[in-house]
Task: structure prediction
Amino acid sequence: MDPTSCPNVNFTFPLNFLPPVFILVFVFGLIANGWGLNSLWRNWRKLGNVNVFILNLGIADILYLLTLPFQVAYYLNKRRWIFGEAFCKVTRFCFNLNLYCSIGFLTCISVYRYLAIVHPMKVMGRITVTHSVIISAIVWTLVSLQSLPDMFFPKHSENMTLKCVDTTMSEYVEVYMQYSFIWTIIGFCIPSLITVACYGHVIVLLCCKDNVDKVLKQRSIKLLIILILLFSICYIPYHVLKNFNLWSRVLSKQGICHKWFNGVYIAQRICRGLVCLNGALNPLVYLHVDEDISAQLRQLCHRTRQAANQLSANTQTLFSSTFRNTQANS
Result:
């Protein structure tokens, strides 16, 4: 949105909101993804074909996380981009690659789970690691081709303040809005419907049958909750507000200003921060799929509780001893 068009829009909000979010996602995302990928590497031989998608999911996350320090510098420098136009487009491309590869690989995981639970005899021995690798390559290729047109829209303005915008400049916002709408349908809506259909069928099947293993039922329900969390927090609000904000920019360019433009812009910036959380939340899939990571996490939590209880007991003993000594001296 052009700041000169509608003066009631608060363009300073992202300067205060986004840097802390990016820093937290960068730190926790690198730790969580590094831990998850390390566990996958150590247990690769005994893990199933679905973990090829988990590996690619982690690679996509780390690829984007490494660009976050530059985004932090951009907003801390009051939206002044100093790294050049080419690198501006690279960071935006990495963001789109991470976002839509994440959605794609989560969809693949959902389909694999669906086939393994609903049609186990038909797919047993027929789906190999090679198939998973080929499907992963197809996902990377399709997402790259889908994101490539975004690279041709100008994102770097060379005026009094050098900028690196998420979408494009106001001159091309009408065309970009059409592209964004098609992009949303192909890259988000269709994979989301596939995921919902797969897990909807799985949950209905597990709930209707009495002879289903309880552990399998619990794991499937947990993964469904994780996917609902990811889509509700990261993906759905971002796509809705992104297109809504582009529409408000088109109206603003036509000289039409409304009070709700400010609310839409702030909400879109909040969703811009939330969508990058997928880089830190995707490792929840690791925790669900890899039992070794789950066991390590439970062990770490147990040790943390023990250390906290010990520290509390030592503090209480020290306080009691100090209090008794004070009373004796008085």
In short: The radius of gyration is 24 Å. The chain has a mean pLDDT of 80. Residues 13-289 form a domain with the Rhopdopsin 7-helix transmembrane proteins fold (CATH 1.20.1070.10).
